[in-house]
Design brief:
With about 475 residues, the chain is an alpha/beta fold. It has a 5-stranded parallel β-sheet, with helices on both faces. Strands 7-8-11-6-12 form a 5-stranded parallel β-sheet. Strands 9-10 form a two-stranded antiparallel ribbon. Strand 9 and strand 10 form a beta hairpin. The relative contact order is 0.08.
Length: about 475
Amino acid sequence: MSRVLVLDDEENIRFFFTEALKKEGYEVKTVGRGERALELFDAEDFDVAVVDLKLPDADGMEILKTFRQRRPETPVIMITAHGNRQVALQALNEGAYDYFSKPFDLEDMRVVIRRAAEKARLVREVDRLRRQMEEGGEGDAPHLIGESAALEVVRETIATVADSDVTCLILGESGTGKELVAEMIHYQSSRRDGPFVKLNCAAIPDTLIETEMFGYEKGAFTGATQRTTGKFEQADGGTLFLDEIGDMTPLVQTKLLRVIETGEFHRVGGANSVQVDVRLLAATNQNLETAIEEGSFREDLYYRINVVSLPLPSLRERPEDIPTLARTFLASFSEKFNKSISGIREDVMERLLSYQWPGNVRELQNALQRAVVLEGGDKVSMTSLPEAVTGGLPSASLSLDELEGESLADMIKRVKARYEKVLIQEALDKAGGNKTKAAQLLKISRVNLHQKINEYEIEPVPH
């Protein structure tokens, strides 16, 4: 529940805010004097502050400055009965989130407070993740995002095996974060100061995988004009991560097994052995036991790389992490692309939660990146998501299963209502929340639009 502090010397204004915001689910504290507001602001946590400019015991502009100095992450909205453009600009220059002159439109104020609260929540989430990274010992250390029980099991396993130097096999579908987990194991181990080297076995042609792993001597083959080190030498003293190890050819599997057993190998075209000290981590999205039965993967190598098995849950198995992941990606990409997108619409979040995510976290990340780039409003809307995620227009479409048992007339009525709601929401988004402009876009009266907004419980989001 978001908390709002309201500072205004007029009792009727305080009552107005209390009644209006409590209906929206906010916890509201109201005060009439600046001194009391400062005491509350220091003693309690608030997501948004609303401050009157003219107060009997204080200057609202000074209150704004103090609030911004003490807690710059808390948005402050200024209100006054004596506003002008110069005062508004001054307030915004001092860090005010927005500015309203009395009398103000209730719906506009609700929308701005909602946006400000969402921004504050995103800032807190980013700060929490940064602290989590710093507490891990490295400010830029890799980390898993989410608080699900399934993810906590993964974290505990990583912490247990990180410093043991055993070979681990990380299992999971594509996009579940196998490389990220390998990095976490490395950075939580005693080898953290050594190199972390990775090789995707599926991305290297069969004819080149051996030279990529072990390097080659000058003259080993046409074009080998100088000695070149492979991934094993590059990882000496650190960790080598072999991704998609199930795609490795039988010949290279045999040579890899020897390196694991002896710590030695020969560069391609070389006569002398090379000794290395490397911690090996491997990953695959294949069933290696089936590959062993089919004869495409060596059983003895499987047991060598699978001293500890670390299975990763799919995103379908931890849907409770989707909101946190989505908002984290949103904040990151909004900053990267310099976009002012404060949140995700409720219908969009419902879709993110119901979608099966065959590409897992990577697919979710890509979807949010696309949404940030294409979104024209200040909240992610359905139209900015990839078609694969929306399935066309899931917010408006209904399946026959959902309509089962209804007459054709009732089916048409429900489908019409669903599409009507979507079109009204898109018109409001395009009009920046301005109901008059939205009504003009839809070619209906403002009164008719207002009735439909109430009927469908639509929340307009201005640009």
